[in-house]
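Hi everyone,

Forwarding the result from last night's run.
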Amino acid sequence: MPVPRTTVTAIAVILLALGLPAVAAPGAAAAGGAVPAAHVTSAPATVTVTGEGSAVGKPDIAVVGAGVEATAKTSRAALNAQNEAAAALLKAVRTQGIADRDIRTENVSLSPVHDYQDGASTLTGYRAAQSFSIKVREVAATGALITAVTEATGDAGRINSVVFDLDDRRPLQARARKAAYQDAHAKAAQYAELGGHRLGRLVSLSEGGTGYVLPMPPVSGDAPGAGIGAVPLAPGEIRATASVTAVYELD
């Protein structure tokens, strides 16, 4: 018995809604009720690669960590001595042409000093200290600044660190990202060729991470300032790194 055409059409609509291929029921073709078959489109082949890149540049600033420290019998005497040394440090820094916006107090402390003997603690005095961060915008002037600070503060002076950097890191990091992208594209093109394909459009791109390596001379925070000024400084170079993950279609 032939299946009514309306029934065949309803079955086909249900199958297509479920994502199943529509199959004509027996006798449907004879009744003139041909049902179009569902078409399945296969996803294009893709290749996923990781690109890495880096860029180097010369430092254009130096950040000097400097400070003063004084010890005395009383807290007031220690603080007065520290204040005097700090004022001398700031005067020397400004004399070197450093603007106030490039000088920042990092820490101020006042603490008791004890002598421990035979399990007993004896208060011997107080230690007052203050540390500063000083940005030097002329890298070549860093050595002269350190010398000026140590000469002005004497035994109270401390040079805690010297870090060379870029005032604006973004251009160097952008170069590293570009190198990482180019590396990913070159790898994808090679894999496409090896597989007998042509490289298609970029489907997705994600950044895996970035890095920034600063040159840092080994300056000890425990060393008194008087011994640092004669040490020649080598700015070295700064390296920025980046990595990306890219997905390309293969034609």
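The longest strand covers residues 120-136.

Cheers,
N.
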